Amino acid sequence: MALLFDPEDPPEVPPKGSHPLIWRLAWMMWTEHQQDITGCCRASSCRARWQEWPCEQHHLAVAGLHAATGNRRKAPPNRAQPRRWTRGHEPGS
Ligand SMILES: [Zn+2]
User: Fold this and answer.
1) Per the domain annotation, does 56 fall within a domain?
2) What does the pLDDT look like over 45-84, one tens digit per residue?
3) Domain of 24, in residue numbers
4) What is the CA(50)–ligand 1 centre distance, in A?
5) If you count Cβ atoms within 10 Å of the first and of the last residue's Cβ in the chain, which end, N or C, has fewer?
């Protein structure tokens, strides 16, 4: 099945034939959960946990974009643990 959008750069406007509400919700989540220059997710909810990118929400957003276009692609499992800084290895030390 041909994709109706570029998963690396999905358009804000829902592709023709897709579910507009699901698309917009997934697109908003997709734009929020992007990689920042440190390699972590830039979303505040993920930054608070030093969540590596791609985070679970990013995978969910991509799955949502596919779901909006009627493509039943499953999100890959993401069991990554939040990164913890140990004593003596704090950022900037
Ligand atoms: Zn995130």
Assistant:
1) yes
2) 999 988 889 999 999 999 999 999 998 765 566 565 556 6
3) 20-68
4) 9
5) C
